[in-house]
Amino acid sequence: MTTSPTRSPLAYAACAALLLYGLAQTWWALGGAGFPFGADDANPEYSAFEHVGRARLAPWLAAGFLSASAVAALLARPGRGLPRGAARVLYGAAGVYVAAVMCLLADFRILGHLAYALMLRFGAVDWSVVNQLFAVTAAGLLAAAAVAHHRRRTGACGRCGRRDGGGGWAAPEAAARWGRRAAYTAVVVPLFYASTRWAWFFGWPLGISDELWEEGQEDHLWVYGAALATLGALGSLLTLGLVQRWGETFPRWMVGLRGRRVPLTLAVVPASVVSVLVTIAGVMYIRLHLTGAFDHPRRDWGASVPETVWPVWGVALALATLAYYLRRRGACGRCGRG
Predict the structure, then answer these.
(1) For every residue of the chain, which 3-state class applies, written as one string?
(2) Which of 300, 5, 297 lies closest to 145 in space, CA to CA?
(3) Model-level pTM?
(4) What's the rounded Cα separation, in Å, for the pair 229 and 218?
(5) What is the pLDDT of residues 234-267, one digit of tens each?
(6) In whole angstroms, how far apart are CA 337 and each of 54, 100, 155?
(7) Is the pLDDT of residue 5 over 80?
(8) 8 Å CB contact between 178 and 319
(9) Which of 16-30, 222-236, 260-274 has the lowest mean pLDDT?
(10) Is 127 exposed, middle or buried (0-12, 13-18, 19+ CB in 10 A)?
(11) Contact indicator for 145, 94 with CB cutoff of 8 Å
């Protein structure tokens, strides 16, 4: 069988992206214009560093991104030549960086921009969101580089991650079992959020005061809210495709496609992206609740509490997507396993 490559292009890509952004943060720390985070954010109320300006925040971010680029450079080295303890330190450092980006730098605006784009409501590009998206992409590359390095260290296939001796939890039969539970969870959770927005649209102020409902009604907020809720509900129903037959073979009513196999990436890529974005958005709402940023009374719980369960949605969707991938990936073209 073909062995894993000694070096990973993912690690080089992560190193380049992180180094580039670390240099940008250094430029901002030295006084360059256009710093996108903290008090300089277009909407600082969403930021974990709402009251921290560029002079204090940019040097820390520069150090963080440059350190992460060094981690990525080390992950690009041949995996077997690194001691187990050192490898664990690298994996831990990569995990800390990914968590910091998702919990502190990124917020729900990435998901909001995606939703509005699907609704064809294209507005001015938000510079803060562009930077968040770049940071999240770099974090994803670093996480992938860590996974690739671990595969090289353990002698697993660099493409599929399989080893000799059976699939265990990653076997198709096992993935079908735990993936089904994850998929049903990912279907149910977003309906909690959607139900409040539909209720507001139809005139029932579920979870909010009459005063707040009337303010939103005057600004037509509940129309947009219902539209976003409907997109989320439709997305949750599409999640069923990860465990239903029509998610693997196009149904009969799809003229020109019926009977054909659904491309693996057509389901895996969008579901993976959404799982990350809804998790980021939910973490932001939890953070804002913990810091007391919401100034609305308890009777207005419907305005922000439903979003705090989104991390459950995101994790369940990610697991369901992983199970779908494991069931459908077939034999590996590099190592022949499967």
Answers:
(1) CCCCCCCCHHHHHHHHHHHHHHHHHHHHHCCCCCCCCHHHCCCHHHCCCCCCCHHHHHHHHHHHHHHHHHHHHHHCCCHHHCCHHHHHHHHHHHHHHHHHHHHHHCCCHHHHHHHHHHCCCCCCCCHHHHHHHHHHHHHHHHHHHHHHHHHHHHCCCCCCCCCCCCCHHHCHHHHHHHHHHHHHHHHHHHHHHHHHHHHHHCCCCCCCCHHHHHHHHHCCHHHHHHHHHHHHHHHHHHHHHHCCHHHCECCCCCCCCCCCECCHHHHHHHHHHHHHHHHHHHHHHHHHHHCCCCCCCHHHHHHCCHHHHHHHHHHHHHHHHHHHHHHHCCCCCCCCCC
(2) 5
(3) 0.90
(4) 19
(5) 888 899 999 999 999 998 888 888 889 999 999 9
(6) 51, 36, 13
(7) no
(8) yes
(9) 222-236
(10) middle
(11) yes
**Token couple for 197:** 């927005």
